[in-house]
């Protein structure tokens, strides 16, 4: 409803006993009235001290004055108000300026206009007692002229045994206009009229109104215009013109003759008949009125088998429009609509729903007769131009559009946030997540959507589509292609992609420079690659430095993947995101050196091999005879390593496609390298770690498993070496764990006082790090661990903590010994990095042990995680 405040009108001569307009002041005052819990005391009629009685405000008004009715908490006045002063305006301020006599004036109208002229009522809620059905009309006009009621709610209470009209205009009233108002009799089956005009009334215009489950009745009226109303009729007619009425125009109205969906009691026609209320035609014009009545440009919606005759004209019923047009020459522009109007909620706390909003394709759209007597320039909501039949102009909703913002929430999960441009109204929506899952519902266009994230059953790309339909049937849709954040592993190779040494694939890498390396589309590697598993080796450096590996096009992170000293050969495994162009970057923060890069696998959205972590377990130690003979591996010889069914049964007996290991060489008799590869295949030229005589070197390895469930470890030196193999996880088609890369994040640096207060970690001490407490979906983490400032030789052991608070917090006097596995090894004074794949176990906490006699600084960076959903 519109909130409007009309200018004071010049009133005509008043009737006897009514205050005369001659007493009007040159400029009318504004008088304030309010009611509700916040209004106390009698008030003085000012805005700061409004009258708390509406009747007192009306009685104090003089012709030309305007009464502003303020809405306060409680908002309902329970008195019946009678206006006896002409030339005044009553304007509701806000949405609930409500007069409803429910206590002291039970059984009386909300508002009576008693022998007044030139009175305007606007934006008011006027209801007769809803608790005592059948008591009184909500508004009564008695002997009044020049009355305008606009943009108001008028509702009476009725039941099936007692019908009460909402608004009555007596036969002594004239020049009455009721526009843009909602009228309701409060009970769908009753025969109460929304507006009843008595015999003798004249010059009455009823235009742009919405009537719910009721109608308009007039008897013996002259100059009656019923124009552009939307009438959801009850058991009685939508419009009933009786007696000898003259100068009647019935045009541009939208008439819904029957609709059980909006009947409060269910089945519409049967209810009316069962209570003896009849089932009348839509438009009834008596024989005495038919000769001077024009009926045209009306739009009928016929609802199924409950339809009544459209017209009863001069006592004859016409069930079809064609029959009526042929017999009467009336209704030449009438239409039968095939599009049912929809139900807007018209006013909070004061009305139900009624079919009023035109839908796309309706015959009423833009088809009104603009020259019809009483036709308004703006519709029920104040929208102009007003060219449609019924009370509500069709809303094309210009600019109606939807944008979609999709974000990954987990490895398999995606959230959707629609951004809608529309007038504020409820929207019907159909959301298709692209995997066969749909969601239908309603949402207000001007509030947040709050859609829960959707978890896809499989990794991949999906097209999310959202279709919106507004209350007028306008439809917009949009879609967005999304990819899950998680991806799964496909073994590849090992295959050499880069070697800058003499005769290699590229020249020596320059100092403080970046080398681009093609991953996607290189050889048999597919184009849609999200991450790659690389073994990166630095050799022949002139001075100390480090190498950082990252996706091409991404900002270079402030972390490192491997550190080197002059003359060192240092390997490290890297799980790195692949840039959108299919490349990765290797930044050398130091003087020129050689780089060797081997790929052992890649991650894609295809459901390939998911990851399952295991408790770190030693599979092979040639020093003790664990899993292999107790003897060093011979020069240029290999040993098999049983994977399937190993690690105390943690590894399944079949189905493993690749295995995540930490491989260590120790006691080598000469310089060389280790190569890990699937059993049953020829050893590739790629290496997993390089060493010099007497050196202990560890490196992470992800390697495909042979068809026999085994891998092989080749000692590529010309002298025997001891080999240690620890398993930390495996990949298989039966595993769901998907990898989610993240921007490198430093979790720990014992050198930084802002992160760690304890300084270097003492010998045989550990740091416990909560990573996934309370998150069973996070099953593993990809870290890069670096030790530096080492004061004695040792190794790093990484394993899940067995206590939910960390072992040192458990109250145990003596902490458990470190696990019998290693993630990297060092000598005094060395800086050594290594990639670590680990799980937080049942408690989501990992322990990093300094397995040495000296102190050591730890630096730990997070590069990604594995997730089950």
Describe this structure in words.
The structure is a single chain. The protein has 869 residues and is mainly β. 3% of the residues lie in helices and 41% in strands. The chain contains 4 helices and 61 strands. Helix 1 (54-60) links the parallel strand 1 and strand 2. The model is unreliable at 1-26 and 806-814 (pLDDT under 50).
Q: What does this entry show, briefly?
A:
The protein is an all-beta fold. The chain is built from four helices and 61 strands.
Task: Figure out the total of helices.
Answer: 4
Percent of residues in β-strands: 35-45%
Shape: elongated
The main sheet orders its strands as: 1-2-5-8-11-14-17-20-23-26
Major sheet: size, sense and barrel closure?
10 strands, parallel
Mean pLDDT score: 88
Distance between the termini: 49 Å
Tell me roughly what share of residues is in helical segments.
under 10%
Give the C-alpha Rg: 43 Å
In total, the number of strands is 61
Computed structural class = mainly beta
Low-confidence stretches: 1-26, 806-814
Provide tags for this entry.
ten-stranded parallel beta sheet; 869 residues; mainly beta; elongated
Write the layout of secondary structure elements.
Layout (H helix, E strand, L loop, with lengths): L29 E6 L18 H7 L5 E6 L4 E2 L3 E3 L5 E4 L5 E2 L11 E4 L2 E6 L2 E3 L11 E4 L2 E6 L2 E3 L11 E3 L4 E6 L2 E3 L10 E3 L4 E6 L2 E3 L3 E4 L2 E6 L2 E3 L6 E4 L3 E6 L2 E3 L11 H7 L8 E3 L1 H4 L2 E4 L2 E3 L9 E3 L2 E3 L2 H8 L6 E3 L63 E8 L4 E9 L4 E7 L5 E7 L9 E2 L5 E9 L5 E9 L4 E12 L13 E6 L12 E9 L5 E7 L10 E3 L5 E8 L5 E7 L4 E11 L5 E12 L15 E6 L13 E11 L5 E7 L10 E3 L5 E8 L5 E6 L6 E11 L5 E12 L16 E5 L7 E11 L5 E7 L23 E3 L5 E7 L6 E8 L4 E11 L2
